[in-house]
Amino acid sequence: MLTLVAGGDGGPVAQIIHREGRWFDIPGGAGVDLAEPRISASRWNGHVEGRCEQESEIEQDCHVIGIALQPMEDVTVFAARKLIQTGPLPAGSMRVYEPGLPMRGIFRGSYDALHLHVPNTMIAEYAAESANAGCGQRRTTSPINDHAIVDPVIERLARALIHAEELGGAFGQSYADGISLAITALLFGGGSDDAPAQRSRVSGLSKWRLKRAKEYMVANLADPIGLADIAAATGLSRMHFAAQFRAATGQRPHDYLLQLRIERARELLLTSRLPLVEIAFEVGFKTQAHFTTVFARFVGETPNAWRQRNHGALDTGILKAA
Questions:
Q1: Beta-strand pair 149-150/17-19
Q2: Domain residue spans of the chain
Q3: Full pLDDT tens readout for the chain, 322 residues
Q4: 127, CA 20 to 30 Å: which among 53, 145, 185, 234?
Q5: At 242, which helix (H) or strand (E)?
Q6: What burial letters (b/e) apply to 144-173, b meaning 16+ CB within 10 Å?
Q7: Structural fold of domain 4-199
């Protein structure tokens, strides 16, 4: 059943995506109707100065699929007291949380995650159908010490789902239900070679190749860098390099490169008086506008706002950029 809130005319309006008051916590509970299991969607998003620490426990009657809707600058997550995430989290990162799992999270900057609360009975049905189809019973949960999976198909579906509230009404709810089922089916149903569980087993880059790729990116931050350039530096084809880099880091090479550029930009914003346009060129952006857009996506605020807020880092102050 869905949580209901009062509408503008005083009548009840169903929330298609619940707003979490606390991490993983849907007001009124996940709303699982055991007679007719239904996936509930919720969203945990916001921005904090400093840090926000939350503790929660996954519902006993649900598995929860967590999907990062945007890159998160700094996230630390413990599951059953075991560290499973620390540092930046790329958009599209996904993990399955087991029922009853005690969770502790520390968030800094902006955070935005979609949570799908999937009834255990529904997951059991998918597992049974897979076994009956001769696929064998697939693992239905991700061990908490696994790396998060980054799956572009599921990321696109998650982004489509958050627009369900714009549609509203019964159609919006049906739209959200359909996408939620599609995500769940990709994770728990069938035995396709393209399943995320299969892709997550791609071997990562060897340590020397990963080191060379990172060094190449750092050394060429100010220049246009393509996937072929980085792959060539490691002696691999573009396809093999991209897959192995993602398996090793949980990030696409392009996202990792952007992260390096933003980290370098923050250093320059704190330690120099260079105007924003020069910093943009220094870290490899062709225009100040593109630099500002990417910076805000990673950090949660514009470069100028971030510089002004952190101006105390320089003894002599920082010249405001035009």
A1: unpaired
A2: 4-199, 207-313
A3: 233 333 334 433 457 888 998 999 876 554 444 445 788 999 999 988 888 999 999 988 889 999 998 888 888 999 888 888 888 888 888 889 989 999 999 998 889 999 999 998 888 777 666 555 554 444 444 434 456 777 788 888 898 898 887 777 788 888 888 899 888 888 876 544 444 443 444 567 888 889 999 999 999 999 988 888 998 888 888 878 888 888 788 788 988 999 999 999 999 999 988 999 999 999 999 999 999 999 998 888 899 999 988 875 454 444 443 3
A4: 145
A5: helix 238-249
A6: beebbbbbeebbebbbebbebbeeeeeebb
A7: Jelly Rolls (2.60.120)
Helix (H) or strand (E) holding 97: strand 93-97
Q: Name the 3-class secondary structure at 75.
A: strand
Nearest alpha-carbon partner for 302 in 283, 288, 285: 288
CA 189/CA 200 separation, integer angstroms: 16
Domain 207-313: assigned CATH number: 1.10.10.60
Residue 40, SS3?
Answer: strand
Please work out, in degrees rounded to the nearest 5, the angle formed at the alpha carbon of residue 108 by the alpha carbons of 104 and 114. Answer: 65
Dihedral angle over CA of 226, 231, 233, 234, nearest 10: 160
